[in-house]
Specification:
The complex is a heterodimer of chains A (921) and B (83). Chain A has 921 residues and is α+β, with helices and mostly antiparallel strands. Chain B is mainly beta. Chain B is built from 1 helix and 6 strands. Classes of the chains: A alpha+beta (921), B mainly beta (83). The structure holds zinc ion (ZN). Zinc ion binds at residues 6, 8-9, 56, 59-60, 62 of chain B. Zinc ion is lined by residues 6, 8-9, 56, 59-60, 62 of chain B.
Amino acid sequence: MSGPARIPGGARATIAFTFDGVAMRARPGDTLAAALLANGVGLVARSFKYHRPRGVMTAGVEEPNALVTIGTGGRTEPNTRSTDVFVYDGLVARSQNRWPSLKVDAGAVLGLAAPVFAAGFYYKTFFGPPKRWMRYEHFIRRAAGLGPAPVAADPDPYEHRAAFCDALVVGSGPTGLAAAKAAAAAGDRVLLVEQDADLGGTLLSDGGDVASIEVARAAIAAAGGRILTRTTASGLWDHGFVTLSERVAEPGQPGALAQRLWQVRAKRIVLATGAIERPLTFAGNDRPGVMLARAVRTYIARFGVLPGKRVVIATNNDDAYRTADAVAAAGGEVVAILDSRAELSAVATVAKTRFPVFTNAVPVSTQARATGLTAVEADIWTERFTYAADCLAVSGGFTPVVHLHSQGGGKLDWRADIQAYVPGATLQDIVTVGSAAGEVEAISPDTVALAHPKSSFIDFQNDVTAADVDLAYAEGYRSVEHLKRYTTLGMGTDQGKTSNMAALGRLAGAAGVSIPAAGLTTFRPPYTPLTLGALAGPDGGGHAAPSRRLALGDCHDALAPIWQPLGLWHRPRAYSQGGESLHAAALREARAVRTAAGIIDVSTLAKFIVSGPDAAALLEIVCATRVAKLAVGRGRYTVMLREDGMVMDDGTVWRLGETRYLLTSSTGGADRMEAHLGYARHVVASNLRVSVVAVQEAFAGIALAGPDAAAILERLTGAAAPAHMGVADAMVAGVPVLILAASYSGERAFELYPVGDAAVPVWDALIAAGAMPYGIEALEFLRIEKGHIVGGGEVDGRTTPHDLRLERMLQKGGGFVGASALDRPALAASDRLQLVGLTSPQPIPEGAMLVAAGGAPVEGHVTAGGLRVLGEGGVALALLRGGRARNGDTLLATSPTRGLEARVTVTDPVFYDPEGARYRG
Amino acid sequence: MLSIDCPHCGPRAQSEFAYDRTLDAIVPLAMPPAEAMRALYTRANPRGWSDELWHHRFGCRAWLVVRRHTVTHAIESVIGYAP
Ligand SMILES: [Zn+2]
């Protein structure tokens, strides 16, 4: 029996799991990869493009090959590295990208994919004739892929947490432990983070000062610090800000909490992130049984699994010799050590007394059967040898993990002796220690030409071969960033952790330049893949944003309205009755306002109390209209501009007392208006004696409108209704209300403002008095007929007061925000988009383009369209090129994507009671 | 995420603050139109130290001047805005 197997002795395998439906057992502490090897499973996955058989290559998060789908239903986690899952009772794992089965895969048997997916395949296909893509699409969608995403909702919760520390130590290998212990001894609050389930890093596989683990643990606890295992520092940002993802439950494992995303602010950061071993490049270097040398001894020492009985070791450095010792001690046979270096090193000289060690020796190809690796072919000096072997342990040197250092803005320095980049100068208080800082074995890179570049893999996960890199270079892709995009190299879930340096080396070789001259791709967060649930945290399942509830929410709920989200608010859109459509309900409500009386909840309007001796002066800076001449107890319509002269918002301003004003503006612009007022108050005119208080949520607002409105109000208050644009204080249903006589609908109307908590009786009293509730859809019908503008419609950030026919309202002397910008010549151009009205015998589609005839250039668009509330036909507001001079023109309003159109006539934008007789009462 | 040391509240996360503009883009009401448009549209955009107006919107609500390096994101000083 050959292949991987458990080393006799040790703990009993008590944990039950399945792989592709086959029941297996694991020991406590096993990773899934270790458990699969212990069960003799060499073939774990099929590769992304070519469906080549793949096995476990590494013992860490860098694993490119042995990706599996873990879990079932909503807990399904595809593309999970089997080396980064700790087996639990009931774990369900499945292989991916195979059909009909892992062992017999049609794609691989037929060799279908290989000729298709050469480097640049996508580019050439997309830029070629369209029919080429049509020909390949179906095939690609079947052949290339990883595990499918789950469709069921994830049942387990995720959470976010913030933390602070003096010293964040990432990595708990020997140097990380030493750094954590030293920081704790200095009195620092330490946060020690380890992505593995156990502390220790290489101590777990290579031994050493194992006692230091407990010493550090005690020191950190004594200094009030914290240790997080199964936690990956996934991103390092500005000012010591680090995001950590903590696996509370294993992938696919039910739990009270699945994962926790930490946001940490650290005063000082120590990166002890270690180094990742690199594979060697030769034909068939991707076969199951070819493993990294350090991974081989990790499986032996930590998990009690011998990855093969007959092991060949291929290396360009001294580190792999420790693997030979481990294999021999575990009862395996070291068939040969192929050392690519020309001379025996001191370590190799000692090893040669126990093992067959060869210099100038490199693997050139492998042979395999379905059961696994059978032989390794090697060139020693100039001769070819074949070794029967079931495992090939390779070491191409070590790449320091510099990701976090680089993400934090740190520079990288090239080290020729280890053929890798190491951390250089940093911008932040970050220090990198141990093998991450380059304390790794020196290597001697081999310079032998590859015999079979087309089957010599560089990026295992993306099936990029040495020949693909050569082809990309030959086709002109000189920069490593271009190479990456052309070949997809480094774009897998492993982000090229094992492949980037080999690719750089190959590219530099083709170009005849040094590796630093060939460049380096950017290290981007996250370091390892994050599940979307971790990012969403508690905001999943409809909790992405808070919901702001109206003070009158219960009143609306009782009428079961159709709701309309508006920012974080939800407002009644229409109060549909007896299965009425939205449109029918809104039209009924609007007609009630035109013929009797209606009420609408306007609580969400932005409201600001502006008071103090210079209150009027501040308002005349923010508002483009005059304010100072307003009499006490009177209000007026106003408009606010941005500094570039475009209309920002509109609203009303009311003089409640000698030096006390109320400013209202739109719901959607409330936050922006608050910031704008703050800017005006504290930056533009900081000398003014004035205070601004936002009271949007302090008061509920109910607008009462219609020909019966004044009578209803007088009945409820027992006092005469204020004149149009007048102010009154009154009691309604025992509740004090501020009454503002403003009309948006065009009918006689009053806005009633009670304190939010006390608003319900006011609403109820108005309904009892005969007012019909109406929603914002009806309000839209009403305002269109009156030509009132709205933010997001006519106020689209590109319209000036002149474009909107508001120029006569402007303060004559300027002095308000935006005034100086209005003199720009382009704003006086005659072909600007200007507000017009449109009429038609038919409904006018909102959003439609305005054209002279089908196919003619677009001259404008319909900003809001509806039907006349009383009477026949459609009316709309529009922005039309040079519109103010085009009354009487006929145009086509067309929306081809919806198949809607109407012949329209250009008019003034007021369709109802242009003299204003109705709202004055 | 930046850490901004508010003179009133102490160091707080960037998410509590709103960036407004660089100081050279503040347009006084009396500024002549041509100059005002230059301030709004053709700003210095320095590669290096930049004086910026920030608003501690979800904190003390003060308007602050943050001197920030646009390449390294280092913050040299945070003081209250004074015209
Ligand atoms: Zn503050």
